[in-house]
Fold this sequence. Notes:
- The chain contains 6 helices and no strands.
- It has about 400 residues and is mainly alpha-helical.
- The protein has a domain at about 280-395.
- Helix 1 (about 15-105) runs antiparallel to helix 3, helix 2 runs antiparallel to helix 3 and helix 3 (about 130-190) packs antiparallel against helix 4 (about 215-320).
- The longest helix is centred in the middle third of the chain and has 107 residues, at about 215-320.
- It is rod-shaped and about 245 Å long.
- The mean pLDDT is about 85.
Amino acid sequence: MARLVQAPPKFHLSEWDLANQMQRASTESQKCRSERTVAESQRLLDEIERTTQKTQSDVNNKIEQRQKEIKFWKQELDDKLEQIVHETEVLLTFKTRLEKSLESCQEPLVIAQKCLLNRQRRVGIDLVHDEVEQELVKEVQVLQEVIALLGRTLEQTNEQIRLNRSVKYDLEMDLKDKFTALMIDDYCANLTNNSPNISYSDTAVRTEQKFVSPEDWVDFSNINVEKADKQRNSSLALRALVDAILSQTASDLRRQRQVVTAAFTDRVKEVKDAKHKLETLLAMVLDEVASQEKNIAALKKAIADKEGPARVAQTRLEARKHRPSVELCYDPVQHRLTREVQEITMNIQRQDTLAEAETALKGLRRRQLSLEEEIQVKENSLYIDEVLCMQMRESVGINNF
Length: 401
């Protein structure tokens, strides 16, 4: 118990002084270290602040530069989109021209084919493979070739319109992405350290596999621009081709139509001339028929007129045969009566020209019938060519589309 309540040991004064000195030295040392730490911390804070501000400024500059790049390509894409949209609209008008031109060829083709069918109704010698028929056949061939060419060109135009629209879609999608990216970068550019709704993100610095390189980014839009230029140039070339085809086909059809019309006109004139000549011949035959009929009538009358004298002479001769005995004399009367009967008989026998005249009349009537039939053939041909065909062709024109 006595040891437990023993007083603590006492230090010497020198130990006390030494302890105080050590406290002062330790405090001074700690203070110096603290001051150095404060100074180093301030330097580090100042350096970090400068670095952060510089980095953030650099990022802001990069964002601004990126915005300029996006705006540049966005403007390029906008220009190409406007061009391809305009070109597609113009090409659609050319498509309409092709469709109208193609449709306008159908009626001339039907009419040309109808003309060929109508001309099959010509009869006799007029059913001839003349120049009109040759040119009509050529016109049908030209129309069919034009229709085939216009059809192929229309298909080509439709395909070009499809390609233009495909390019338009790619440009629109690229522009949509550029617009979204620009909006995001605009948002990022406006963010400051004091902006609300800023926060940490654990995945912000993670590199996504779907990221593309800047070179690929430029190439993507550049390819879209090049595709737009290519299709626009193809569309321009196609429009020039369509314009030339429409002009040339219209010219070819118009020229062939003029050739056919001229052939019809010449043929109608030829047939009319032939018909006029036949009508002249018919008039001559009719005149000759009338003359021959008068001749036959005169011949018959002449024969009839000789019957009385012949009967008188023959009656006298018969009566004088009954003279009696020596009175039955061959006197001058008998001689003259005999000669009279012979003369009349001879004259009547000479009237065999009546048969020849009647034969000639039959021949003339056959010729009349043949000429009348031939004139009807010509009238039928004229009706077909001048009325059915030429009037039908006048209702259709060849237009430029």
